[in-house]
Amino acid sequence: MQCDGLAEFYVRDFKDFENAFKDPFYLKEVQPDELELIDPESSALTVGYEHIVLEDSKKVESHARNY
User: Fold this and answer.
1) Measured between alpha carbons, how far is 4 from 49 in angstroms, rounded to an integer?
2) Whether the model pTM is above 0.85
């Protein structure tokens, strides 16, 4: 995939992410500038989930997952 930019968002609930784009401040102040910089028609969105593994209450930095 060829692109000019990338943004990552970490949210606890995807609904919060969706609601951010309905916020009056976003719609009035941010979106107009955003539309000058970003072409929404050629933009893509991918969604992923981060799985955190804990062992003895400590985050395991490297692990293998079997599916």
Assistant:
1) 24
2) no
